[in-house]
Amino acid sequence: MPVAMVLEELKPHYSFFIVSDQTAQQVKEIMSALPFKTENRLFTLKDYQSLKLCYEDCKKAIEAAVKLVGEENVYVNYTGGTKVMSAAVILAAQYYNVHCIYVGGDIREKGGLGTVIRDHEEIFIELSPAKKVR
Fold first, then answer.
1. Whole-model pTM?
2. Of 91-95, 116-120, 126-130, where does the model show the most confidence?
């Protein structure tokens, strides 16, 4: 699972999860499987299908993370969630010098078009593309 993979790689002190009502339970499952503990904060989206509302909620979550640990220590993983959620979190991240994370890979299901096959995942990390490096 890409979320757990990134958490295991980074081992953060704090983890902020932006979830829908339907996916909030998955956070508990992910966290209970990790070999370390992290302080979790959940931000529940008002409407996971609305780009505007998702963007507003994602911006609040990123602002809270930046205030807590500073821009340089914030990693925004846009791999999971709906397309709307991924787009919204990247739009919200553009205002900060945060790191953006995507878990991808070359070997995929469905003839190369589906999900990356387990154990062939690769973590890609780069600064938010819309923000200038200071």
1. 0.86
2. 91-95
Tokens 């205002």 correspond to 95
Give tens-digit pLDDT for 46-63.
Answer: 999 999 999 999 999 999
CA end-to-end distance (rounded Å), the chain = 33
Domain 2-127 - what CATH class?
alpha beta
Number of CB atoms found within 10 A of residue 59's CB: 18
Which residues are CB-neighbours of 110 under 8 A, at least 6 positions away? none
DSSP 51-115: HHHHHHHHHHHHHHHHHHH-GGG-EEE-SSS-HHHHHHHHHHHTTS--EEEEEE-S-BHHHHTSP
Residue 101 amino acid letter: I
